[in-house]
Amino acid sequence: AQQGTEKRQRCTLTFTTWASSDISRESKTWDKPKALIRCDTASYISQGHAKNGGCVFQGIAPSIVVGYGDGWDEQTNHLETARNQPSQTIPRMPFKVIPGFDKNNMIERCANNRVCGKNGLNRAWARRACREEWGWAYSQRYAPLPNGVSENQLGLEWDGLPDHDGIQGDCDEFPFNATYNGSYQYKKGEKKFSVRVINGQQNQDFGSALNKWFNRERILDHDKFFVRFKSAG
User: What is the pTM of this model?
Assistant: First the structure.
């Protein structure tokens, strides 16, 4: 049945296997397994051939793979901390569990501009959390430290952010801005998310890669997915 403006349609694909025997002169047909397929023409799936509509198999938990060396190491490190040391993330919360790292605790893609657009609620509350921790000028005060140089060597007091001039920093959040699990929950007093000021260019490059993955895999509004990490080596 067709659903909403995305024109979602579902059908069942049956794989038929037929075999016969010259000895017994008997034949048999199997109509299993069956696969559920979803097709759509969602307007926000808008890159490459995907913009013309497409289909995906249902019943498989989608996952995006991240790792070091892809051009956004600071983004990857933030995600790694959110998974392995959630109680050490901002905003602080003891025994915090951040969703989105396995198929039993997935996060939901958001295509609602009011919640997850460039000026949406997620981004507004993420920036509020960053300002509360690092001050209003968090983006201007960010810069990666030179290789081998520590804050103490520069005679600066460590407050979580380098104080010397550098490139702009972005207030990154996980679960991602493009989910219903993002920083908007802070308004309700919940803290099951993480913010960190990271390299602005890396943050934006990863955001573009995430959006391309949404398009390629046809991840629609309210579809669930999770993040996986590349195996070392």
Answer: 0.78
- For residues 83 and 88, what is the distance between their CA atoms, to the nearest angstrom? 10
| Sequence-separated (6 or more) residues with CB below 8 Å from residue 179 | 100, 107, 108, 109, 110, 116, 122
User: Six-digit token pair at 229?
Assistant: 């990490």
In eight-state DSSP terms, residue 214 is: H
Give the distance, in angstroms, between the CA of residue 161 and the centroid of all CA atoms in the same chain: 24
Residues 179-208 as b/e (b if ≥16 CB within 10 A, e otherwise) read: bbbbbbbbeeeebbbbbbbbbbebbeebbe
CB-count burial class (<10 Å; 0-12, 13-18, 19+) for 107? buried
Amino acid in the structure at residue 43: S
Alpha helices in the chain (DSSP H): 73-84, 113-116, 121-134, 200-217
Digit-coded pLDDT (tens) for 86-132: 999 999 999 999 999 999 999 999 999 999 998 899 999 999 999 99
Closest CA to 7 of 225, 226, 167, 218: 218
